[in-house]
Amino acid sequence: MMKKREQSLQTKEKLLGAAQVIFAKSGFDSASVASICEAAGVSKGAFYHHFESKQALFFELMKRWLDDLEERLHEIEAREADVPEKLFSMAHVVGDVLQMGGPQLSIYLEFWNQAIRDRDVHRTLSQPFDDFIAFFSGLLEDGMERGTIKSGDAEMTARVIIALGIGLLFQGLLEPGAADWNEATAFGLNLLFEGLYRGDKS
Questions:
Q1: Distance CA 192, CA 175 (A)
Q2: Model pTM?
Q3: Residue 198, pLDDT above cutoff 50
Q4: Full set of structural domains in the chain with CATH
Q5: What is Dmax (Cα atoms) for the chain?
Q6: Looking at beta carbons, which pairs linking 17-26 to residues 24 or more positions away fall under 8 Å?
């Protein structure tokens, strides 16, 4: 029984791995269940045992990405450090993603591309996005209460931080060797904190 369960899990992982490569290379619309099954070396019956559709598999890939990102951010949040230090540590997440290489990078673009075109994908991605805004807003509010960050609009600042991360991620995807993206993200946060620390500049 245990062996059969392990084989089933292995089959699922093969499908996810093959789909990630194919989605990244050909895009979601051009990918087919047949091509995913062929690349994974499994039957269509095995595919539909694990996933009811190609979109369901796509959602599983996206959920894993978001869950991993959320876990890493919460691990940093739990550290004994002030808020600015935590945010700088989080900046390295962008660089780590870009250093992965391979199909993982292109699949991130495919998530965003599908979110623009498909309402179901948009809903699936927008909720975690709202959660990230709430996460960073809470972190910033904590820093404001402790006096390590200047008081201001925490939600708007959170949106700017997320926009910075997404923008640098896209730059890194387009020009992977153009910069040290960990360093670039930290540099961008430092520019932001100049205003947060020293007040508004007219």
A1: 23
A2: 0.75
A3: no
A4: 1-52 (1.10.10.60), 61-198 (1.10.357.10)
A5: 69
A6: 19/54, 19/57, 19/58, 19/61, 20/61, 20/103, 20/104, 20/107, 21/103, 23/58, 23/61, 23/103, 23/107, 23/110, 24/103, 24/104, 24/105, 24/106, 24/107, 24/110, 25/103, 25/106
Tally of CB atoms within 10 A around 146: 10
d(CA 27, CA 58): 11
What are the C-alpha distances in Å from 178 to residues 67, 89, 168, 169?
A: 29, 22, 11, 12
| C-alpha R_g of the chain | 20
Which residues touch 196 (CB under 8 Å, ≥6 apart)?
Answer: 149, 150, 152, 157
With 0-12 / 13-18 / 19 or more C-beta atoms within 10 angstroms meaning exposed / middle / buried, residue 125 is buried
Tokens of 182: 């960990």
Query: Distance (Å, rounded) from C-alpha 123 to C-alpha 1?
Result: 37
**Residue indicated by tokens 């991605």:** 125
Contact by Cβ (8 Å): 148, 83? yes
Burial class (CB in 10 A: 0-12, 13-18, 19+), 30: exposed
Interval 121-159: pLDDT, tens: 888 778 888 888 999 999 999 989 988 888 889 999 899
The structure tokens listed for 197 are 């620390």
